[in-house]
């Protein structure tokens, strides 16, 4: 169960997971097989559907990838940028 939340997904697998979340039946079988192995989706009579872990993973995908609190130390070390006037 925890493995599905931590396992890295390729960009195509992320797209496949989002497609299942939106109810699409157009998901490549190789990506669907891996998502099933990770317990992110499960077979359903109409195709695939998200598991509880899959719902959590989709919510995690929609979060911003950059933690703004981690950028502050970088801003301290970067010198300010001065604009150079362009000749006209």
Gist of the model:
With 88 residues, the protein is mainly α.
What does this structure look like?
This protein is mainly α and 88 residues long. It has a domain at 2-61: Orthogonal Bundle (Arc Repressor Mutant, subunit A), CATH 1.10.10. The protein is built from five helices and two strands. The chain has helices at residues 2-6, 11-21, 29-37, 52-61, 68-77; strands spanning 41-44, 47-50. Strand 1 and strand 2 (47-50) form a beta hairpin. The chain is elongated, with a radius of gyration of 20 Å.
Helix content: 40-55%
Q: What fraction strand?
A: 5-15%
Sum up the overall morphology in one term.
Answer: elongated
Strand order of the largest sheet: 1-2
| Unreliable runs | none
| Text of the CATH class of the domain at 2-61 | Mainly Alpha
Q: Helix and strand succession? A: HHHEEHH
CATH topology of the domain at 2-61: the name is Arc Repressor Mutant, subunit A
**What's the architecture of the domain at 2-61 in CATH terms?**
Orthogonal Bundle
Count of β-strands:
2
Distance, first to last CA: 63 Å
Give me the oligomer status: single chain
